[in-house]
Design brief:
- It is a single chain.
- With about 350 residues, the protein is of the alpha/beta class.
- The protein has 2 domains: about 5-50 and about 270-360, Alpha-Beta Complex (Aspartate Aminotransferase, domain 1), CATH 3.90.1150; about 55-270, Aspartate Aminotransferase, domain 2 (3-Layer(aba) Sandwich).
- The chain is about 35% helix and about 15% strand.
- It contains 13 helices and 13 strands.
- It has a 7-stranded mixed sheet with strand order 2-8-7-6-5-3-4, sandwiched between helices.
- The longest helix has 23 residues, at about 270-290.
Length: about 350
């Protein structure tokens, strides 16, 4: 047998890589709780509890031409997205989830020794992707209300090619004001603005796309559209940047299934917008209920989740207790988020069961 170590072929930065910490799937949660999979209340990944729109389900019943590659130029998808968000289709690039757009942007921009600025705590995928590209991450702590300290970011902007802003922020749920975003854009760095949860808020920076050529806005169909399992998202940016990414992406990066689902979702956007309003109302009800629970301190949110501090270091105990009852939430154990739980907004029935369980644990 050969004594070759296959890891010798792997780049050092990959061998040192700390992966993004994803959540467990329903089948594993059900097994751990000793219940059926359909009994799991999954509130740990900010998924849409209502699933895709009726038109999507109808369109997916009889998929045409699955033996034919999808359109590499994404003509139909880019036009539909452009019509929906009122931008030129040439500003749009569609990806296998917005994670792919992050990957494409970072690989197109970053080289060994470059840097990004990341206002923490926030979505964990950005440092991982930067490390894969050989870039460093300058972590700037958010303020006491988890706001971005604009002056601190601007002070180190000259050291970074990319500034990352997630708004509404994951996992804290707060928005970054448009005025602050414009200040950061004036730094000259490329600003990647992640608006994955924008449809649950009252703000978007989409109107700034044609004003700032250094702005890239990310959107996903996972949350608002209920398509997390199909992986489809998009980036909106200056047409010159979009052209580069279109040339560098894999030719058939979005499956025909995901394309059909995206087109049907945008055609049925009124239904999805209505469901978003239902989720917002349920979020507000959940917030008010959590406020009245002893030992639970929820943060106001403009997303489809609520971050809560659990008193007396009991977050892990509460998390495990909920898991035993088949209710999955996100637990944080380190740094600024120690003893916090993030709870996705579910249906009214799911919220009611969650609250009953929480009352026995806090």
């Amino acid at each position: 047998m050969s004594n070759i170590n296959p890891l010798n072929y792997i780049h050092d930065r990959w061998r040192r890589l700390s992966p993004y910490e994803a959540v467990d799937p329903p089948e594993k949660l059900a097994e751990a709780a000793g219940i059926q999979e359909n009994e799991v209340i999954k509130l740990n990944a900010n998924e849409n509890p209502y699933g895709p729109s009726p038109l999507v389900l109808e369109a997916l019943r009889d998929l045409p031409n699955v033996h034919i590659y999808p359109d590499p130029a994404q003509v139909a998808m880019r036009k539909a997205i452009g019509d929906y968000i009122k931008v030129d289709p040439h500003n749009v690039v569609v990806g296998n989830g917005s994670d792919e757009i992050i990957d494409l942007v970072f690989r197109a921009v970053l080289s060994d020794g470059d840097a990004i600025i990341n206002a923490v705590p926030t979505f964990g995928m950005y440092p991982v992707t930067a490390q894969i590209c050989g870039a460093n991450t300058i972590s700037v702590p958010r303020g006491s209300s988890f706001e971005i300290p604009v002056h601190e970011v601007m002070a180190c902007a000259s050291k970074a090619k990319i500034i990352v802003v997630v708004s509404p922020n994951n996992p804290t749920g707060n928005l970054t004001p448009l005025a602050d975003i414009e200040v950061l854009l004036d730094s000259g760095s490329l600003l990647v603005l992640d608006e994955a949860y924008a449809e649950f808020s009252n703000q978007t920076a989409m109107g700034l796309i044609n004003k700032y050529p250094n702005l890239i806005i990310l959107r996903t169909l996972s949350k608002w559209g209920g398509l997390a399992g199909l992986r489809v998202g998009y980036g909106v940016m200056n047409t010159a940047l979009a052209d580069v990414l279109m040339r560098g992406k894999p030719p058939y990066n979005v499956s025909r299934t995901a394309e059909i689902a995206l087109l049907a979702s945008l055609k049925d956007h009124a239904v999805l917008d209505s469901r978003a309003q239902v989720i917002i109302a349920e979020r507000d009800r959940l917030y008010e209920t959590l406020e009245n629970l002893p030992g639970v301190d929820p943060l106001p949110s403009q997303a489809n989740f609520i971050l809560c501090h659990i008193a007396e270091g009991r977050a892990k105990m509460v998390y495990e207790g909920l898991a035993q009852k088949g209710i999955a939430v996100r637990y944080y154990s380190e740094g600024r988020l120690e003893n916090y739980l993030r709870i996705s907004v579910g249906t009214t029935e799911q919220t009611n069961k969650l609250i009953v369980a929480l009352k026995t644990l806090v």
